[in-house]
Structure formats: structure tokens, C-alpha cells
């Protein structure tokens, strides 16, 4: 089993305390993202269910929460025949096995083949994998390979050598998906963005000055109290130019998002991270304006319930303030947690969303 699969299993099995109030809220909302984190035992029926069970809900005083089916069975409960909570463990093992296959393969694995290898129907496994990891099997494979290519390009003098080092059978396979994912050609990536134009502008907002930068594909940096030197450090060979009219429309949309967060959820992005980081960023963009999630809930929704610290690190690695709304995350005890651009701004953004 590969390191990626071992990491997936480890973070999925780390024991974390169950917050009864949060667990009840998830059960009451039938939150499928919480399936596998705990089971709900009902004293009046003697059964245990997964949080998303569609059956009629019991009264709160008749409910207890256990980490898994084994604990619930030891306490005298039996599995619900409707929601089949014990299948979640089987699903988890299947996803981990698929992750191992993806990590070990030098070529893209067709969905039919991947699903058959772990004993599921293709369309069902596609939904299961995305629910568990936050991305599709194909997107996970692209993310894994792109991360490897990015690392290899920094270490190798030759782009071709880096592509082979990352596990591609031939350069053409990388050009099929890796270059598209990195947002620039592999040689440009290796040379610090050579040949890529990044346009920037500094905009005034009610929360302070905001640097907005974008490639032709979308926003690559949005940050308070920052200047273009940060772009030059990340992409020292890129052409970094003042945005002018080419960036004016996009910049106006970003400023509007600061003043009224959540109004424009489809702003284009050109940001890249690890597969887990991108899963976290994807989940962040699905949190409704005015609502918050804990770092634990964010990790679970991204497919790794035990990776709470990693979820926090993914928020810290966010390169586009407000557009990827990491301000909607706080600690499990309700305290604000961190925010790269200052807790006062985080509180202000949350307040604006609540007032919408």
C-alpha cells in the first residue's frame, strides 16, 4: 500500500472526541459529510444509524452517539437496515484502496476499471469517492501527479526528466493533463513563470488596500496589505505588469466581494495546491455566506476527518482572500482561530455576511 493510501487511512481513523451538540446538529440536518465520523444510537428502537439516515428522527433525549458501529453493537444496538451504517467502513476501505491504485499507477485508470477493482458500480463509486475526498477520482489523480511534477520541476534541470520522475510513462501524458492543471507550461513553471504574464492592481476597499493579481486563466493572488513583490518572489521569471483595463472588470468584482461577501461565487481562479488543499478550498467555496464551519468539520467535508491541523494549514495556504472564503472557518469551541489578513478583517467579513 502506498504512502498516499496509508495517509488517507490514518487520518480517517484517528479518534476525535464527539461533540454531542454538533453531532445532533449534523444528524438533524442529515449531513452526509458526517457519515463515518460517528453513529447515532436510538434507545427507543435499539438501532444505530449514520448521520444522514432518512428515517424519521427520534427525540433528542433518546439518542446517544458512538464512534462507530462496533461501539454501538457493544452497547447492545443493531444496525439500521435502511441506512446501513456499517457500509461506511466498507466505503472507506474501498476509497483507500482506490487511492493506493491511483498513486501506484503510471497511467490514468478508467473509472470502470477502478470501481470494479474495489467492488462497486462505476457511477456509485464516482459519487462515493467525491463525497469522501472532495474531488473525483480523475481530479484526485491529476492533483497527485501535478504535485509530483511541481516538486520534480524544482529539483530537475530537465523538464522531460521531471515528467518521468513524477511517474508519467511519456511526456505526452503529462501534456494531456498536467500542463492544463498547473495553469502554465511545465517549462515556465520550472523557470519561475517564464513566459507567463501576471497582471496586478491595488484596490481600495473598506477593509484596507487589496492587491489583486491574475493570469489569463483567473485570479492567482488576492491579499490585503501586499504589493507585487510577493508575486515576484513566487514567480521570479514571470512578466508582472500593472493590470490596467485588462484587469479592471475582474478587480471590480473582487472589490464587490469584499464589500458584500458571497455575492459572486463564480470568480475564476488560477491557484494550485496539493489534492487535499484543493479539496479544502473547494469545500470552503460551498459554505453558504453567513455560516461558519469548524476546522474539524472542514477536514471531514474534505474527506479526512482526522486532518484538522492540515485543514487549518490549507486555509493558511489560501492565496486568494475572500474569494476562497477561509474567513468562514473557526475553531470547534467557537473562537475565531487564525486568519492571514488579521482577525479584525475576519470578524468584519463574517458580520457583513450575517447582515445580508
Q: Widest sheet: strand order?
A: 3-1-2-4
* Count of individual helical segments: 16
What is the general shape? globular
Looking at how many chains there are and whether they match, the oligomeric state comes to single chain
State the major sheet.
4 strands, mixed
Summing up helix and strand content along with how strands pair, one would put the structural category as alpha/beta
Q: Work out the helicity level.
A: 40-55%
Q: Write down the overall mean pLDDT.
A: 80
Q: Which residues sit in consecutive blocks of at least 5 with pLDDT less than 50?
A: 1-15
The gyration radius over C-alpha positions equals 22 Å
What is the number of beta strands?
Answer: 10
Distance between the termini: 49 Å
Give a verbal description of the structure.
With 356 residues, this protein is α/β, with parallel strands linked by helices. 47% of the residues lie in helices and 12% in strands. It is built from 16 helices and ten strands. The protein has helices spanning 3-13, 20-28, 69-74, 87-104, 111-118, 122-133, 137-155, 159-165, 171-182, 186-190, 229-234, 245-259, 275-284, 295-301, 308-316, 343-354, and strands spanning 39-42, 47-49, 63-66, 78-79, 197-205, 208-214, 219-224, 239-242, 293-294, 329-330. The strands form three sheets. The protein has a four-stranded mixed beta sheet with strand order 3-1-2-4. Helix 7 packs across helix 9 and helix 13 packs across helix 15 (308-316). The chain is globular, with a radius of gyration of 22 Å. The termini are far apart. Mean pLDDT is 80; it is low at 1-15.
Amino acid at each position: 500500500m502506498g504512502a498516499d493510501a496509508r495517509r488517507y487511512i490514518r487520518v480517517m481513523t484517528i479518534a476525535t472526541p464527539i461533540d454531542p451538540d454538533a453531532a445532533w446538529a449534523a444528524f438533524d440536518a442529515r449531513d452526509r459529510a458526517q457519515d463515518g465520523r460517528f453513529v447515532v444510537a436510538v434507545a427507543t428502537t435499539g438501532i444505530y444509524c449514520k448521520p444522514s439516515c432518512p428515517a424519521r428522527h427520534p427525540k433528542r433525549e433518546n439518542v446517544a452517539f458512538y464512534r462507530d458501529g462496533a461501539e454501538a453493537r457493544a452497547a447492545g444496538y443493531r444496525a439500521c437496515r435502511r441506512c446501513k451504517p456499517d457500509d461506511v467502513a466498507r466505503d472507506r476501505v474501498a476509497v483507500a484502496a482506490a487511492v493506493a491504485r491511483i498513486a501506484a499507477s503510471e497511467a490514468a485508470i478508467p473509472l470502470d476499471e477502478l470501481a470494479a477493482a474495489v467492488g462497486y458500480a462505476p457511477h456509485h463509486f464516482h459519487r462515493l469517492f467525491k463525497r469522501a475526498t472532495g474531488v473525483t477520482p480523475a481530479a484526485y489523480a491529476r492533483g497527485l501527479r501535478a504535485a509530483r511534477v511541481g516538486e520534480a520541476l524544482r529539483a530537475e534541470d530537465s523538464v522531460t526528466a521531471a515528467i518521468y520522475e513524477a511517474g508519467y510513462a511519456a511526456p505526452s501524458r503529462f501534456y494531456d493533463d498536467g500542463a492544463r492543471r498547473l495553469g502554465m507550461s511545465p517549462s515556465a513553471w520550472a523557470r519561475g513563470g517564464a513566459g507567463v504574464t501576471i497582471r496586478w492592481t491595488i484596490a481600495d476597499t473598506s477593509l484596507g488596500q487589496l492587491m489583486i493579481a491574475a493570469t489569463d486563466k483567473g485570479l492567482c493572488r488576492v491579499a490585503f496589505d501586499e504589493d507585487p513583490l510577493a508575486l515576484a518572489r513566487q514567480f521570479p521569471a514571470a512578466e508582472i505588469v500593472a493590470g490596467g483595463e485588462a484587469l479592471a472588470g475582474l478587480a471590480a468584482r473582487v472589490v464587490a466581494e469584499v464589500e458584500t461577501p458571497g455575492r459572486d461565487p463564480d470568480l475564476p481562479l488560477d491557484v494550485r495546491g496539493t489534492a487535499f488543499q484543493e479539496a479544502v478550498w473547494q469545500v470552503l467555496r460551498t459554505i453558504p455566506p453567513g455560516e461558519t464551519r469548524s476546522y474539524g468539520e472542514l477536514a471531514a467535508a474534505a474527506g479526512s476527518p482526522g486532518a484538522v491541523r492540515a485543514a487549518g494549514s490549507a486555509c493558511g495556504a489560501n492565496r486568494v482572500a475572500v474569494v476562497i472564503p477561509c474567513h468562514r472557518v473557526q475553531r470547534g469551541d467557537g473562537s475565531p482561530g487564525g486568519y492571514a489578513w488579521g482577525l479584525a478583517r475576519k470578524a468584519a467579513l463574517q458580520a457583513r455576511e450575517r447582515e445580508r
